[in-house]
Structure formats: structure tokens, C-alpha cells
Amino acid sequence: MFSTTFDLTTEQEDLRRMVRDFAEREVKPKAAEIDETAEFPIDTFKKMGELGLLGIPFPEEYGGAGADYLSYILAVEEIARVCGGTGLSYAAHVSLGTSPIYYHGTEKQKEQYLPPLTKGEFLGSFGLSEPNAGSDAGGTKTTAIDNGDHFILNGAKQWITNPAYAKTIILTAKTDTSQKGSRGISAFVLDTPTKGYSFGKKEDKLGMRGSDTRPLFFDSVVLPKENVLGELHKGFPVFMQTLDAGRISIGALALGIAQGAYEEAAKYAKTRKQFGQPIASFQGIAGMLADMATQIEAARHLVYHAARLKMAGRDFTKEGAMAKLFASEISSKVCYDAIQIHGGYGYTREYPVERMWRDAKLCEIGEGTSEIQRIVISRQILGRL
Ligand code: CAA
After folding, report:
1. Is residue 309 predicted with pLDDT exceeding 80?
2. Is the beta carbon of 169 within 6 A of some atom in ligand 1?
3. 134 C-alpha vs ligand 1 centroid, how far in Å?
């Protein structure tokens, strides 16, 4: 089914098989329902926690599975192949809600926060975007003002994944208002629930509807000093580094959705008969499927390559952005063509491809729009002009 050129290890292949089996058994049967009802599949996440999927790339000493980053990427791809919404919440938990603590936390923070997150006792969440600070993430208006032995947090966050199921939120707030732009921002871990913290109603989204997306509000929340993540006033780079890696997982999310849509389209084209023969036998349809397979294979190369650079400890900012940009744009195109191949049936909820198309669109927006990826890539190849 997959090209043999990806050189996965036996462990990575085994993990992929295990996650695929789980996804087919537990995730796929609920995908249409959670899209329809917009209900978060909390039971699925409990089972993912029991299987160790929520802690794949973290060491066993912190409750993780001790596997490598590519294994996690394969898991995101496999979950997304059957359900984008579950895949998005999964990627947000690992890449955004848990990784910053592992990479930037003190030993005490790691010991305290990582085991419940990696075992799935609750989910992790990540608050960077605000109503007026989206692509311009450095324009954070939320403040955390020094008040002796703690900070007082005020402000709001927007488009946040998983908050209703999270007990920790990694967030940014301006701690030094005398510094301009993205300088003077700090990263924090906020323990929830806590006085002054609340979240708003679940967003009614086009796609990824099972995934929990809400605004957050902070009204004079007391943030202990020990909850600073990384260096005080130097939190913006913590978030940028987190997004560098998160973008590889959004690439995997888009790739998985595209793979699922392609498989549906190929299956349909081989069984649907018109003019007395399967429509796959017509060059127009066969050519579309060939293009879809080619785009998916190219995206897979970019996503796995970025993951391998990260595993090797090499720079991957450009490659992660390229992987996300390319995979998310081809994912929308592949899903769009999958609908076309299904004809009128593809335009109905009877077949999953319209859901996949709606889900895929988010990958061109979340964790940095395609326009932001182009800025990141162009700065890497051209420098700051
Ligand atoms: N790694 C480390 N540091 C980095 C970095 C990186 N990849 N990129 C930038 N930095 C550092 C810079 O070195 C600079 O540091 P100094 O102040 O010490 O010089 C600082 O960060 C500011 O960098 P820039 O001048 O490049 O910042 P900018 O204001 O021009 O913005 C940007 C750059 C790429 C546009 C950035 O704002 C960005 O990525 N925007 C998109 C944000 C985004 O992806 N949001 C989605 C969040 S996901 C979410 O919130 C929802 C959810 O739950 C899924």
C-alpha cells in the first residue's frame, strides 16, 4: 500500500500497523457521528492514553513511550486517515500541549506535568492566538504583571484546541510591557481550573467539528512564579520553536486526510460502473488518481524528511514549514478531486469525502496559515530583507 522507499524501521512499521488497527476499530466508526454532533470523542482519547499514543515521543521516565518523533508523525497520519478532528486534537495535545514542557520545562515541571499528559489523564492545550493577534502572534495583548511572588494574568485567547478537556494550558503573556513587539513576552503553564479562568462556547466550525475549539478568558488569574516556562520575558522563541515542530505534525495531519480521501476515491472508482465499465478504467479518472497519489507521495517525503531532521537534531524550520504548506494544500486538492470522482454521491454525507475536504481546509489555516508558512520559508531562503 505504501511505497517502500520511506525506509521505516521495523519498530516504526509495527507502530504504524498498531495505530492503523486502532484507528480502523475505534476512530473510524465514530468519525461521521462526531462531525455531525460536534461532540468531542473523550472515550477515544482515554483509549489512546491507555495504548501509549499520547506520549509516543517522550521518554519512559516521564510516562512516555520512548519512541522517536517519526513514530509520532506516523500515528498522527494514521488517525487523520480516518478522522481529521480526532487527529487535530491529538496533534495539538502532543505537539503544542505537552512538547513545550518537555523541551523548555525545568526538571521539576517535567516531573510534575509530563506523566499525566503522556498517560492521557487529561489533555494539554496551547494558547498563543488572540482575537487581535493571529498571524501577528507577537502582538499578544494578554498581560502577566509581576505582583511579588506571583503574576496577575489578564486577557483572552482565541481558537484554542482542547481546553474543555485540559488541565494545563501553555500560554503567552506580555510580562515586560516596556519592550516592543514580540519581546517581553513570557511563556507559562497555567493549571486549570483556577479562579478567574474560564473558556467560552465551542466554536461551530466548517470541519474538524469533533475537535474542541474555544476562546479562553483570564480575569486577574494568579499565576505562581514557578509556572514560567523557560526564561522570563523570552517566551516568544519558545512558542516559535514549538510551532516549528507542530507544523510537521499538521503536515502529517493533512497527509493522513489526503491518504484517506485518495483511498476512498480509488475504491469508488474501481467499483462504480458507468458506460458498462468501472470509471477507473477511463483515462480522465485514472489520471486524477495518478495525480493524487503523486501529490501524496511528495507530501509524505517532505513530512518524513522534516521529522528526520528534527530527530537528527538539525535545523528544520524551513522544512517543517514546507511540509505543512505543501501537505495542507495538496490535501485540500486531493479531497476536492475525491469528491469529483464520487460525482453526486461525493457531495452528500453518505460518503466521507466531503467531511475530509472540510477537515483538510483547517490545515491551511491552523498553526500558521499558508501565507505565514511562505513568510517563514522565504526568510529562511532569502534572509530578512
Ligand atoms: N525559533 C526560535 N526563535 C524564533 C523563531 C524560531 N523558529 N522564529 C522567530 N524566532 C525569534 C526571533 O529570533 C526573534 O527573536 P529576537 O526578538 O530575540 O530577535 C523573535 O522570535 C521574533 O521573530 P520575528 O521578528 O521573526 O517575528 P515576527 O513578528 O516577524 O513573526 C512569524 C514571525 C513567523 C510571522 C510568527 O509571528 C508566526 O509564526 N505567526 C503565526 C503564528 C501561528 O502559527 N499561530 C498559530 C498558533 S496555533 C494555536 O494557537 C491554536 C491551537 O491550539 C492549534
Report:
1. yes
2. no
3. 11
Kindly name the residue from 26, 264, 364, 367 that is annotated as catalytic. Answer: 367
pLDDT in tens, 166-178: 999 999 999 999 9
Instruction: Tell how far the Cα of 16 is from the centroid of ligand 1, in angstroms.
Output: 32
Rounded CA separation 281/171 (Å): 53
Q: Residue 385: what pLDDT?
A: 75
Nearest CA to ligand 1 atom 40: 135
Does the annotation mark 371 as catalytic? no
The pTM for the full model equals 0.97
Q: Mean pLDDT in the chain?
A: 97
Q: How far apart are CA 236 and CA 282, in angstroms?
A: 53
Please indicate whether residue 138, judged by its CB atom, sits closer than 6 Å to ligand 1: yes
Contacts of 323 (CB under 8 A, 6+ apart): 247, 248, 251, 299, 302, 303, 305, 306
Q: How far is the CA of 373 from the centre of ligand 1 (A)?
A: 11
Contacts of 229 (CB under 8 A, 6+ apart): 100, 101, 104, 105, 109, 170, 186, 187, 188, 189, 235, 238
